[in-house]
Amino acid sequence: MTWVVLWETREGYRNREWDWGKGPGRGRCKSQGLKSGRSKERGMGYETEIKLRIEDGKGLRRTLKRLRAQLVELGGGRVHEMNLIFDTPQGGLAKHGQLLRIRTETPEGSKRRTTEKGAPRVVLTFKSPPEELAMGETTQVVRYRRYKVRQEIEVVLTDAAGLQRIFEGLGLRGWFRYEKYRTTYRLPGQVKWAKGLLLELDETPVGTFLELEGPGDAIDRAAKELGYGTKDYILKNYLVLYVEDCRRKGVTAGDMVFGSEAGKGR
Length: 266
Fold this sequence. Notes:
Helix content: 10-25%
Strand content: 35-45%
Strand order of the largest sheet: 4-9-8-7-6-10-11-12
Shape: globular
Radius of gyration: 19 Å
Structural class: alpha+beta
Distance between the termini: 26 Å
Largest sheet: 8 strands, antiparallel, barrel
CATH topology: Hypothetical Protein Pfu-838710-001
Mean pLDDT: 78
CATH superfamily: Hypothetical Protein Pfu-838710-001
Order of helices and strands: EEEEHEEHEEHEHEEEHH
Number of helices: 6
């Protein structure tokens, strides 16, 4: 089984192919450097974000309370997300730094609700790499990439199963599934520097992370308020974090779901 992922780092992008062989812990990695230039000025449809690894969840919540962070609710504050990533059998989208995903968002406790507010929401997402990489401009060197910047298009679906059949008819397949719980916060409106900033707390099978998404200056300020520096920024996506976790544990990679080998001991 071969996995192809776009490795997002501060130095640029690396296209890595993971061949897991026939047994646990036998993964081999072949990498080819891809150096991206600086992204153009961010506009509509671009996301700018970083992740922070959270070791003390209770401490983080105390800090969020001190900052008067407010829940951004989808039915309830904590939302279960089940994600399915689609690609060609050859991994063509991932090789070009693209992502095609169907996500089902279910507010916690919604199984007991009958209101529309608590109903699951299904979102189709397409993400592309920075324009320089998408256009093949790989000769420029990025000395330091502080944030993860990608173009993103999202559409709320009414018939996810039908769209999945269309994808499969076009030769795409759902090849990686991952789940997490997300709680989203924002700071009060009177905190001017935090305008447009979202703080997204993700509980995953491979650990707890806080995603900061918004203007770069706001990301840096929020990280500092939370006790983190730029050296703590994580630009890798959850697929890469999961692959790394499997390799550390010597287990075969599959789907990143709760109860899997990669999630044990967390």
